[in-house]
Amino acid sequence: MQYRRLGSTGLKVSEVSLGSWLTYGNGVGDETAISTIHQAFESGINFFDTANVYNRGEAEKVVGKALSKYTRSDYVLATKAFFPMGDGPNDRGLSRKHIMEAFHASLKRLNVDYVDILYCHRYDPDTPVEETLRAFDDLIRQGKVLYAGISEWTAAQIEEAMRVSDAKLLNRFVVNQPQYSMLKREIEKEVIPVSEKNGVGQVVFSPLAQGFLTGKYKSMNDFPKDSRAANEKMNVFVHRFLSEDVFEKIGKLSAIADEAGIPLAQMALSWILRLKNISSALIGASRPEQVAQNAKASGTVLSADTLAAIERVLGDA
Predict the structure, then answer these.
(1) pLDDT by residue (tens digit) across 82-109?
(2) Does any domain span residue 250?
(3) Which domain holds residue 28?
(4) Which residues are catalytic?
């Protein structure tokens, strides 16, 4: 496993990281989830991601339990706040009240004294950015959060946050967690350039497009029984990739991977890591063997011919 700096910070994170969205505390049994997290750590992955909203805190509990066997300084832990955690008007968003209450509840579920990264899980149009930044700044000054991040913010929203941080002498956001894969490349146009200018690194989720870039889905109606697409608890986001055009691209990409002598999933992750602004590719895994295989993408450099062939297939994906 190789490691990269998180944006412009000195924090080193594994090129492949492990998340718990749609899986732990929900679609995957706790024992399997814990075994998968342990396999990730043994594979050199030091970066683990969760969020309070993932099955209303259950994912945090599983991640915290799994990581409790390791020395706290040996891993990087991230969680998030924004989405509703209750029915009240202040049980959501990025107000100071919700951030503080939601974050301290996350610490209890994770059973840790601090997290390395706390993300704004989305942009909150109802809360002034300065209020959010001050709450994060206070948590950082208290030592309960080491770095501040955002997820799925636009380039304009990132720039707004940077202006306010600098004007008010508040800690900046240093990491962004957007969706990015061979099949979803929107961040290349504006988000990455703005992030590079401001020292913000990307930790991208869904790098394998909900499993479609593993090659296990062969057609619109051919889903393996143990796959995410066949699991009613996890397939809510799968159908956005269901199209004949996607399957045609996957077939061509599989042929390129075969020519390169590596699995399609490994090629897809290595393709993401070709960009310097990517700090880590955040995978999801429901079995230990999946994370062990995907971890091998770290350090794999695709040839210029392979990258050119991929680009011809993807076009404006």
Answers:
(1) 999 999 999 999 999 999 999 999 999 9
(2) no
(3) 3-214+226-238+268-298
(4) 54
